[in-house]
Amino acid sequence: MARSFPATAARTRIGRPPCGRAGPQDTARQPNGDRFVTGRSPNSLWNVGFREHAAPVRRILGIALAIVLIGGVAAAVIAGRGGQGSDGTATKTVRGVIGSEKSEFFTDPEVVKALADKGFTVQTETSGSWAMDRLPLKEYDFAFPGSSEPARRILAKAAPKGAQPARPFYSPLVVVTRSAAAKVLADNGLAQLKGAHTGRLRMGAYLKAAAEDRTWQQLKGSAGHPELTGTVFVKTTDPNTSNSGALWLSATSFVANGTKTVADEAAIAANAPLMRKLYAVQGALAQSTDEPFRDFISGAGDPLILVYESQIAALLLQQQDPGDLVVLYPDTTVNSDHTLVPFNDDARALGDLLANDKRLRQLAVRHGFRPQGARAEFAAATAQHTGYLARELSGIRQVSAPTLPVLQALARRATGTN
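^ that's the sequence the OP posted. Answer follows.
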């Protein structure tokens, strides 16, 4: 399955051939150091017998120019076939499809440079993680969905035998809200606050409120907040295509199913009505968390928004003002293990770099991701922001997503797209 890409040949600058037929004494230098031909005296020694020597001179110059050109082409081919150049220029180009939550990471100029220093140019296109297996994957060198379950499907469908996925980093799901809404939720038993800007969303209590069609107006303490109106719900993405939406459906269905992963048609049928309520109330479903999060930060949008912790961490690490934002970690969740599935050796090497290169791990943290196997890196980088971010995820129940066929069937029922 390995693909080859045309190497970017280094351009070799060929010196200009001698102008006219001037000899040494017939040249002068311009202020910039370039030579130019001066007028030649008819009595110059360089004119004597010129006609007799013209043909041999032209042959010699032609041979010399051919040697220079051949040398330049050879140098370009060697540069194109080699690994990393001495100046850190990328010599391997790999093309992949990624979840949109990683788009800013791959377009970050420092990430581009760090990859180029290791010999890579990475070209990416975005797609919903749970829709990637429907793409013409033979056109790519790797797929990089936001969790392990779609990665397993992609691995079985498109990867060569023996391919090993890389899981360089992960990010928990969180629900963001404002301080007024967070306090109302806490006062009504739907959340537990741990300071002014962080806490836990109690998933069982939230699902009970959803099953009862509870409105904000029915919650005590909401009267002084006119922005809190209508049914209480968490704004999510489409679970049919989007990773965050699918993981939220996995977590909520686990809790609704008596803290057991939905595994068969009977469990799908039993839990579909409540799951349908969670999505029907939202109206149009976004395809990624980017747009709802931007709306929320700008002061628009719904009171409760599902996003990745990485989006909050990146906002804080970039020294942007979060205002009165509150981050609620669901007490039951499915982590987003970003999993790179390689289709050839170059993509496998890219996965290894993302997982193990110190500089790339640092840049992943700067974009809010938690590197696998190294809690200290994320904790150190976010030490000034523990008022918003959890240093540890202890006390949060981590559950498994249903198999892809089961989750897809549940998503269709939940969104009314049967």
